[in-house]
Amino acid sequence: MVTYKDAGVDIYKEDKVIRALASQIKFERTDAIKPADLKGHYAGAIEFGDYYLVLCTDGVGSKMVVAEMANKFDTVPIDMIAMNVNDAICIGAEPVALVDYMAVEDITEDIASQIGKGLNDGIKESNINLIGGETASLPNMIKGVDLAGTVLAVVKKDEIVSGKEVKPGDLIVGLRSSGIHSNGLSLARKVFFDIANLDVNSKLSHGKTVAEELLTPTKIYVKPVLEMIKQVNVKGLAHITGGGFRKLKRLNKEVCYKIDELPEILPIFKEMQKLGNVADEEMFKTFNMGIGFCVIVEKEDAEKIIEISNHHNIPAFVIGKIEDSVEVNGETKKETVLVEYNNKKMIME
């Protein structure tokens, strides 16, 4: 069975690398501009009067390799923007501006035009301004094109959603993803191109080509989530990216997140699992599996969250609940994420 690690990505090693890097960052300003207490969350923030200024930074990742194979670059900028704005809204912040960074080996006017179109589509959907950026020609360092960006968002101090209020009894509402989004592409490419020997134009069993599936842009959840925050007491928000439902642990770490009512798994994930003989556990630890965002609310508010999401043409479902502890093989587990699927109980450590 193929794993994400076989494809060159070790998520546990990445965790250790991040901890090693963060352990050396000790300096903080001592004036009134103080960082918010959000270590380990989706976004960083600093105090600015009655507000927090929020920053997120991310890139397209190896999805750009597929864009180069297909010579189609007009969707990947949407992924870059989505990775940033979807993280920013996880603390209740409204994204307002973007600066981008493009590093290139060489680039044509056609590719630049496609990237420009994607940037415009992404900022329009996110309702933000592109206020600047940088392009660097680095032929000795870069193969092809790499695109990243940083988003600025704002939130009033008394309106921040930290996730600390999440408690047993709350429900987890899952918002549909558009597909693979921008995570797990190393494993997806290994399955489709190395194991199954397909190319980007190959048709999959459900009718779409590999390129159509892998280059479907990440869903941007800004508009529905900001509306939810205004209308409902939202207690926790999670962007489900690389590592899958493990991301829920960025919220309240003292509870259990039990995912046991998942909707139909999207065709792209079924196809990858079948072609690559990928274990259920590996799929759920790598991909979003059809749920791109989670909203945690009290039981009586779940239907309103679903109603708002559906109004924005994003199907939503109650997919689980918060518990004090969970039982797995007769053992009591605390402070973890449990996914029940295919008659299996899988701990997402």
From TrEMBL:
CDD domains: PurM. Its main location: cytoplasm. It catalyses: 2-formamido-N(1)-(5-O-phospho-beta-D-ribosyl)acetamidine + ATP = 5-amino-1-(5-phospho-beta-D-ribosyl)imidazole + ADP + phosphate + H(+). It is found in: Cytoplasm. Residues 42-155 form the PurM-like N-terminal domain. GO terms for molecular function: ATP binding; phosphoribosylamine-glycine ligase activity; phosphoribosylformylglycinamidine cyclo-ligase activity. GO terms for biological process: 'de novo' IMP biosynthetic process; adenine biosynthetic process. GO terms for cellular component: cytosol. Pathway: Purine metabolism; IMP biosynthesis via de novo pathway; 5-amino-1-(5-phospho-D-ribosyl)imidazole from N(2)-formyl-N(1)-(5-phospho-D-ribosyl)glycinamide: step 2/2. The keyword Cytoplasm applies. It comes from the Archaea. Its EC number is 6.3.3.1. Residues 167-327 form the PurM-like C-terminal domain. Pfam families: AIRS, AIRS_C. Keywords: ATP-binding, Cytoplasm, Ligase, Nucleotide-binding, Purine biosynthesis. PANTHER family: TRIFUNCTIONAL PURINE BIOSYNTHETIC PROTEIN ADENOSINE-3, TRIFUNCTIONAL PURINE BIOSYNTHETIC PROTEIN ADENOSINE-3-RELATED. Belongs to the AIR synthase family. This is Phosphoribosylformylglycinamidine cyclo-ligase. It comes from Methanococcus maripaludis. The gene is purM.
